[in-house]
Amino acid sequence: MTKKIFKSIMVVAGAVLIASLVIIMGCLYRYFSNVQEKQLEDELSLAVIAVEWDGRDYLEELQSKEYRLTWVAENGEVIYDTQSDGEGMENHADREEIQEALRNKEGKSSRYSTTLLEKTLYCARRLNDGSVLRISVRSVTIWVLVLGMIQPILIVVVVALILSGILASHISKHIMEPLNSLDLEKPLENNTYEELAPLLNRINKQHRQIDMQLSELQRKNDEFTQITYGMTEGLVLLNEKNIILNINPAALKLFHTSHFCKGKDFLTVERNHDVSRAIQDAFLSGHSETRMEREGKEYQIHINRIESNGSVIGAVILAFDITEAAFAERNRREFTANVSHELKTPLQSIMGSAELMENGLVKPEDMTRFVGHIRTEAGRLVTLIDDIIRLSRLDEKCDMPFENVDLYEVASDVMAGLADIAAAKDIEVTLTGGTVSVKSVRRLLAEIIFNLCDNAIKYNKNGGTVEVAISRQENNAVIAVKDSGIGIPPEHQARIFERFYRVDKSRSKESGGTGLGLSIVKHAVQYLNGKIDLQSSPRQGTMIQISFQEDKNDVVNV
Amino acid sequence: MRSRFDEQLAILNKELTQMGAMCEEAIAVASKALTMGDIKLTDKVLSLDGEINRMERTIETLCLKLLLQQQPVARDLRQISAALKMITDMERIGTQAADIAEIITFLGGRTGGECEQIRFMADAASQMVTESIDAFVKQDIILAGAAIDRDDVVDDLFLQVKSSLIKLIAEKPTDGGYALDLLMIAKYFERIGDHAVNIAEWVAFSVTGEHKK
Predict the structure, then answer these.
(1) Distance, in angstroms, between A154 CA and closest chain B CA?
(2) Domains and CATH numbers, chain B
(3) pLDDT tens per residue across span A237-267
(4) Domain annotation covers residue A254
(5) Domain check: are A245 and A144 in the same one?
(6) Could you tell me if A277 lies within 8 Å of chain B, comparing CB atoms?
(7) Phi, psi of A359 (to 5 degrees)
(8) Model confidence at A558, in pLDDT bands (50, 70, 90)?
(9) CB B24 to CB A271 under 8 A?
(10) Contact criterion met (CB < 8 Å) for B20 and A265
(11) Is pLDDT above 90 for A349?
(12) Which one, of A539, A376, A517, lies nearest residue A460 by Cα?
């Protein structure tokens, strides 16, 4: 600002200086030239009269340093010159002023010296005898005058420079002071010169705009944070250079890191090769998926590229916990495989027997045995399908009526039905306890007790015992089935409630089970909000205890 | 100028982390191949080793370029020179994981179950590599110290493996070759532990400027 003001002041000062110099010099110079010319003419007329009067004597007596008088004859020869020897001078007939004087009686001219520093003015007049008298005077040119004035001009310029410098800094300070002290936070409350008002108005408007945009941004940011913080899925935002922009708490937990990872490369958080490659893929192709195992949990990771106006600006990583889903999927796959296998085995057996009979390979006396075989296998199929149907019903959780059921009564009914099988293996079955009434589903309770007792008998040794006890412990109605059977090895205990799971796969045919019994028990107990406890040791027996916790009002002790 | 240098340093860090991740994977897959007796997995270790070797060349070139063009001093110089040393150790880890994989193919599906400590060794060495790479990524001297301390565990385990293999040979002289293969594997794990210690020490050097030896 100071510089600009200084410059303009200097330009103005310079222009004024030059202009005044030119004008003054021009006017004065012309005035003085005119005066000099007049004087020259006056002197000449005096000299002409004197020469006509006195002739050569006047010229010889004349002692003038300033003026030079030359008397030239009509033919141009110099008769006399006051400053040099007349005879030695060249012919003057071709001089402009002489010719003019010869022609018009008077002539004038001026000639510059070769250096332009001097100017000689000539004035000539024809005398009565035809000769010409010329007077000349030397004067300095305008340039010499100007040159002579350089020193004072320079002094003026220097003074102007200093003055304009001081003035410029003073003015700019004066202009800038109110600007510097503007309170831009409250633009309208400033008291400055009115030229600034439009600017301040605009600043005020923009202030309001910025405030609005800021609060809008803040609101959006809050929304985003609220949404992502509550998510159970891990969410990470990356920019195009793989730097973490945002990460939610679930992802922090998953990748074992802290908030300090923001602004760092994602590699510093997770350097798993598959994940890095998936991120690269996503940047190239737009989307990629991968799976990752972390502390026994399985995560599905989706990565999507983010684009804006056709250029890639980052990627978003979403990590789902699919442990349960993966487990369920595995279970379903196993179940399908098992069902097909279990269904196929008896059918294969039936087909085999039927083919033998069809081809007449069966002797008539064996026929009964074969038909019996087909019947048993078909019976197995029916049992299996029955079990599957029961299970799927439990899976679908179709509504079953809750009613007041006496556990003891149900148990004794079921055990009556099992008496024959127990007798076949010479197993002593006892029921202890008393009436315990619960609000429950009678059919499911029967199913549970039947399957438990059935297993207790099936996997028992000959002459063993099965004890069923119905009791009430605090708020719980408890069914306990204890046998003296083969027991379940510890490594299998966690899995026996899975569908088709067999401890001893080779013996399944022999014992005739479907592998679905305990699975049905588990689902039924779940449906009735009960709890299963298993205590078992190999070769000593198993005790399975089912307890239903109920409100005091529902348990009626009669 | 400086910002470009910073960018290049960031690339160097990124590549080093990737190389470290590959080393982790190589040794993890190698120990999985051993415990599962899965010969198919060994191919993966070998291909990882190839990738690690290529990576070493890339990082080496980058480091030399940085040294020449930027003439770094102080911390930057330490970082780059430490990187140059670390990639050598990482490359050795990769190669030794490949060696282990190669020996596993000779075992014929046996898993070294006779000598439990060898699995502990595999786990411990694997964890050491992870810790030292973690220390690098986080520039964490405490983690580096943990990795260095764990080396004693691996060394102890190696002695235990040795004595139990001696017992194995004494009991079943026919298994002599198998026992020797296991010993080689154990030795490689022990060496991998040493390389992990080296990496951890270089991390400490690049952070503090002091190299313990």
Answers:
(1) 49
(2) 2-208 (1.20.58.220)
(3) 888 888 888 888 888 888 888 888 888 888 8
(4) yes
(5) no
(6) no
(7) -85, 5
(8) very low
(9) yes
(10) no
(11) no
(12) A539
Tally the domains of chain A: 4
Under 8 Å CB pairs connecting chains A and B tally to 27
ipTM: 0.76
Q: Is B20 on the interface with A (CB under 8 A)?
A: yes
Tokens of A25: 């010099």
**Chain B within 8 Å of A276 (Cβ-Cβ)?**
yes
In this structure, what DSSP letter does residue A65 have?
Answer: S
Q: What angle do CA B185, B190, B193 make, to 5 degrees?
A: 130
Asked if the C-beta of B13 comes within 8 angstroms of chain A's C-beta atoms, the answer is: yes
Residues A422, A481 share a domain: yes
Inform me whether the C-beta atom of residue A271 falls under 8 Å from chain B C-beta atoms. Answer: yes
Contact: B18, A268; criterion CB under 8 Å: no
For residues A307 and A333, state if they share a domain: no
Q: Count the Cβ atoms, other than its own, within 10 Å of residue A143.
A: 11
Domain containing residue A335: 326-395
The CATH number covering residue A54 comes to 3.30.450.20
Residues A404 and A449 in one domain: yes
| A112-121, A457-466, A539-548: least confidently modelled range | A112-121
> Across-strand partners of A67?
A137
| Interface contact A272-B21, CB threshold 8 A | yes
Chain A neighbors of B133, CB-CB under 8 A:
271
A158 occurs within a structural domain = no
- B138 part of contact set with chain A, CB < 8 Å: yes
Query: What per-residue confidence (pLDDT) applies to A507?
Result: 57
Mean pLDDT score across all residues of chain A: 84
Provide the residue type at A243 as one letter.
I
DSSP, residue by residue, B46-106: HHHHHHHHHHHHHHHHHHHHHHHHH---HHHHHHHHHHHHHHHHHHHHHHHHHHHHHHHHH
* Across A75-79, average pLDDT: 82
- The CATH number of whichever domain residue A337 belongs to comes to 1.10.287.130
A316 and A345 share one domain:
no
pTM tops 0.90, yes or no: no
Identify whether A373 is part of a domain: yes
Per-residue CA distances from B63 to A113, B10, B13, B197 (Å): 81, 12, 11, 22
Whether A271 and B13 lie within 8 Å, measured CB to CB: no
- State residue A557's pLDDT score: 45
Chain A CB contacts of B18 under 8 Å are: 267, 271, 276
- For residue A298, give the 3-state DSSP assignment: strand
Can you list the residues of chain B whose pLDDT is less than 70? Answer: 1, 213
Instruction: Give the pairing of strands A428-433 and A465-473.
Output: parallel
Asked whether residue A439 is domain-assigned, the answer is yes
Residue A214 has pLDDT above 90, yes or no: yes
Which positions in chain A touch B13 (Cβ < 8 Å)? 265
Residues A534, A436: one domain? yes
CB contact under 8 A, A271 and B133: yes
CATH number of the domain where residue A499 is located: 3.30.565.10
Are A376 and A415 within one domain? no
Same domain assignment for residues A490 and A530: yes
In this predicted model, what pLDDT tens digit does every residue of B76-110 receive, in sequence order? Answer: 888 888 889 999 999 999 999 999 998 888 887 77
- Mutation site, A267, A274, A295, interface B, largest B CB count within 10 A: A267
Q: 241-270 in A: which are within 8 Å (CB) of B?
A: 242, 265, 267-268
